[in-house]
Amino acid sequence: MNTTLEIPLSAELVTAYYAASPEDQQKIQQFVQIMLEQMANPERHSLQSIAQALTDQAEANGLTPDILEALLHADD
Q: Which residues have CB under 8 Å from 48's CB, separation 6+?
């Protein structure tokens, strides 16, 4: 069962998210979900291992650092 979580973000990030393709939006959602799942069990994961897992998953889903940077600076 999925539930919605509201997270305060800057207007720039919200705009970039909604301007992204549905596929990229799904990748971002997966990225956040993985991050929260990893943080839910902090005794099992160091911050470095969480960051590495997020990076690996994002890259596996096609969200490269270049794409992420472009999304974050779409309105610049």
A: none
- Summarised one tens digit per residue, pLDDT across range 7-19 is 999 999 999 999 9
pTM: 0.55
User: Could you tell me the two tokens for 16?
Assistant: 């970039």
When computed from its CA atoms, the radius of gyration of the chain, rounded to whole angstroms, is 13
- 42-66 per-residue burial string, b: 16 or more CB within 10 A, e: under 16: eeebeeeebeeebeebbeebebeee
Sorted by sequence, the CB contacts under 8 Å of residue 39 that are 6+ apart come out as 45, 50
Q: Helix H segments across the chain?
A: 11-19, 22-39, 47-60, 65-72
Residue 75 region by backbone torsions, left for phi larger than 0, else alpha for psi between -120 and 50, else beta: alpha
Q: Token pair of 19, please?
A: 């301007």
